[in-house]
C-alpha cells in the first residue's frame, strides 16, 4: 500500500535504543518526525543524527517527538551512538529503531530498489497528533537532509492548521503568509487579518503572520 499525505501513519512494534516501542502509543498526543538512515556507521547519517539531537529543544518547543530508523540492529545502534555523541558533540536522547527485519522500512516504503536493494533511502515522515502523515520528504543516501527545513515544515503545518493561510516559497517564522484562496468573505477576512492584506492579484493576497 502506498502512503500518501493524509494516510494514517502505519503502526508497528519494534525494538529501539530506548526499549520496545509501540509507535502510535509512543507518539501519544505529540507530533512525530520519523526519519530513516541507510546504514549504521556511515558518515552522512552520523552528522544527521547529531544535528537532530542538537535541535532537541527546537523539536520539543513544537511538541514534536523525533525517532530515527536504520536497518541495522539495536546493539549496532548502541555502539554507533557513542561515535555520534563524540563526533557531533551531542547527547542523543531520542530513540533509534532497530530494523534488521526491515519491517518499518517495508511499511513506510523506505527501500527503493532502483537506488539500492537493501539500504533505505533518507525518508522523513511528518505525523500529526491524529497519526496522519502530513508531509514526506525523500533524499538519496548521498544527500544529507536539512534539519532547519524539517523544523520549517513543522512550523508551516502547525500555523496553517490554525489559521486560514498557506506559507509561500522560502517562508520562515515571521514572514508574510498568503490568505487561502477559498476565503472570500470580506467580514471574515477583516476579523481574521486585522492587520490587513496586500492583494498582488485577486488570488495572491499577502498578510502578516497572524499569530505574531
Ligand atoms: C552516509 O550516511 O554517509 C552514506 C550511507 C550510505 C551511502 C552513502 C553514504
Percent in strands: 15-25%
Shape: elongated
**What are the low-pLDDT stretches, counting only 5+ consecutive residues below 50?**
none
Structural class: alpha+beta
Discrete helix count:
7
Bound heterogens, unique: benzoic acid
Largest sheet: 5 strands, mixed
Q: Helix proportion of residues, in percent?
A: 25-40%
- What is the mean pLDDT? 97
Run of helices and strands = EEHEHHEHEHEEHEEHEE
Give the strand line-up of the largest sheet: 5-4-3-6-7
Total number of strands: 11
N-to-C terminal Cα separation, in Å?
Answer: 40 Å
Gyration radius over CA? 19 Å
Overview of this protein structure:
The chain has helices spanning 23-27, 43-54, 56-61, 74-88, 103-107, 147-162, 186-192, and strands spanning 13-14, 21-22, 31-37, 64-70, 96-98, 122-127, 133-139, 165-166, 177-179, 198-201, 204-207. The chain is 31% helix and 22% strand. The radius of gyration is 19 Å and the shape is elongated. With 212 residues, the protein is of the alpha+beta class. Strand 6 and strand 7 form a beta hairpin. The strands form 3 sheets. It has a 5-stranded mixed beta sheet with strand order 5-4-3-6-7. Helix 2 crosses helix 4 (74-88). The N and C termini lie far apart (40 Å). Bound molecules: benzoic acid (BEZ). Residues 38-39, 42-45, 119, 141-142 line the site of benzoic acid (BEZ).
